[in-house]
Specification:
Distance between the termini: 46 Å
CATH topology of the largest domain: Zincin-like
Number of domains: 2
Largest sheet: 6 strands, antiparallel
CATH class of the largest domain: Alpha Beta
Number of helices: 5
CATH architecture of the largest domain: 2-Layer Sandwich
Helix content: 25-40%
Shape: elongated
Mean pLDDT: 91
Length: 200
């Protein structure tokens, strides 16, 4: 996909930043359906071009944020060499600077959160509860809810599986899959669906 076709997925005024970051690199942008395991990824192709894949379901600001994340991989590898860790200090420095540079793209309320995040970017923005609450707020018109707002013992649906909230452990929540009896830890701001009770 050409960079000129990206604006329909992006907030306004993002192209100048992208054109600067893309530079003379040959970058193939692929837009795909929603993937639960990842929001975007980057690989360098054998012909020295680059491929970035992004989920089509991301909201514009989050789409730009994820695209910036993936471009930071490209720029860090090109500047510091291919042997650096994917999310090491070189990538953190590159991504953090790109966030600060493109801060005007984001709404006013997001900027303090992004400035804080840019000081030591994480591999997944889900590690920042503040950014999760901003990019993925609780829906107002559905049964979607952050797991932290469920009652202990309450059942919920996550990725078509039914779970039961067992207990809180520090900032996370221990939950049991009712089909397999296996237990998993969930972050407090994981969006889940309330399980309707009989008669509702």
């Amino acid at each position: 996909m050409s960079i000129n076709l990206l604006p329909k997925f992006l907030p306004e005024h993002t192209l100048p930043y992208l054109k600067k970051w893309f530079g003379s690199y040959r970058i193939h942008i692929h837009i795909t359906r929603d993937r639960h395991s990842k929001q975007g990824d980057y690989i360098k192709l054998p012909n020295d071009s680059h491929k970035i894949t992004l989920n089509s379901t991301l909201e514009p600001e989050l789409f730009f944020f994820v695209l910036t994340h993936e471009l930071a991989h490209l720029l860090a590898f090109e500047k510091f060499g291919r042997r650096i860790p994917p999310h090491g200090k070189e990538w953190k420095l590159t991504f953090g600077n790109m966030i600060l540079e493109s801060l005007p793209v984001y709404k006013e309320e997001a900027r303090p959160l992004l400035i804080k995040f840019s000081k030591s970017p994480k591999a997944n923005f889900m590690a920042s509860e503040d950014l999760v609450r901003y990019f993925r707020p609780e829906p107002e018109t559905t049964d979607g809810v952050y797991i932290e707002n469920l009652a202990m013992g309450e059942e919920f649906i996550y990725r078509k599986q039914v779970y039961k909230l067992i207990e809180k452990r520090k900032k996370n929540y221990l939950c049991q899959n009712l089909s397999t009896d296996k237990k998993y830890m969930f972050k407090s701001v994981t969006l889940v669906q309330r399980k309707k009770q009989n008669g509702e």
